[in-house]
Amino acid sequence: MEFATIASHSSAIKKLKEHNPNLIFEDITEDWLDGYFSYLKKKLGNNDNTAYKNMSVIKKYVRMAHKAGYMDENPFENWSIKQTTANCVYLSEQELQLLVSLYSERNLESRLHKTLEFFLFLCFSSLHVGDAKKLQLEQFGEDSFTYFRIKLRNSKPMPIQVPISSPLRMILRNLVGTRKKGSVFENLPADQTMNIQLKTIADFAEIDKQITHKVGRHTFATIFLRRTKDLASLREILGHSTIKETLVYAHVLDESKQEGIKVFNTFEL
């Protein structure tokens, strides 16, 4: 089981224990599922995506308990886990430029500068936090770098090749100096700490958005697609197993359609 999966299961079980520390499998009925889902949303303030992920974890253990004979019925038989799309927060090109300028000016205190540097690396590389943290200098060539997504490690993934842009090359140079091998990133704070620092950085830049590390990858994808309209290439760079995953950024193509149709407004009838 991957670290991220363990963390997800641990979080869901912790919430379950806090809600009912004496819960047994026999207590879990369809009515209980409805009530607990409501608790996640109303009491804990979880959004639909988070709440359904928690229910999905519970479903896995309930299914095993039912199969092992600890439950007479599986309450999830008629209780479906809905597929939801999380809100995709990303930076506009203007907002990204604000952060690039802030980085270049080097006026932030050291810990914030380091966090901003890591975030900008994500914005220009397309990587997830975990994949970026594991990068080694040996994975970088002259014009691109190659990696395997942690999320796909157990499914025999193909290597993903990402072209290196000028800003990414400059950030890499600042990061590693004269080093030729080893980890790209050294002594980074915990993810939660950096996400808190990103809020401070957003305030400095006067960006009114909830910035977390995920925003870096979303920003890359949105700007790339807006500029190129190339959904297939974006899928390859992001390492998505299906085009369906990449279509979360299709809103950019919709914007382009609206802009494109305006060319016909020059014709007068």
Description:
The protein has 269 residues and is an all-alpha fold. The protein is globular. It is 56% helix and 3% strand. The protein has helices spanning 3-19, 30-43, 48-67, 93-105, 110-125, 129-133, 166-176, 191-205, 213-228, 231-238, 243-246, 251-261, and strands at 144-147, 160-163. It is built from 12 helices and 2 strands, in the order H-H-H-H-H-H-E-E-H-H-H-H-H-H. The N and C termini lie far apart (64 Å). It has 2 domains: 3-78, DNA polymerase, domain 1, CATH 1.10.150.130; 93-260, hpI Integrase, Chain A (Orthogonal Bundle). Helix 2 runs antiparallel to helix 3, helix 5 packs across helix 8 and helix 5 (110-125) packs parallel to helix 9. A two-stranded antiparallel ribbon has the order 1-2.
Observed structural traits:
269 residues, mainly alpha, DNA polymerase, domain 1, hpI Integrase, Chain A, 2 domains, 12 helices, 3% strand, DNA binding, SAM-like_dom, Tyrosine_recombinase_XerCD, Integrase_recombinase_N, DNA-binding
Please write out the topology.
Blueprint: H1 3-19, H2 30-43, H3 48-67, H4 93-105, H5 110-125, H6 129-133, E1 144-147, E2 160-163, H7 166-176, H8 191-205, H9 213-228, H10 231-238, H11 243-246, H12 251-261
Helix pairs in contact: 1-3, 2-3, 4-5, 5-7, 5-8, 5-9
Short synopsis of the structure:
The protein is mainly alpha-helical and 269 residues long. The protein has 12 helices and 2 strands, in the order H-H-H-H-H-H-E-E-H-H-H-H-H-H.
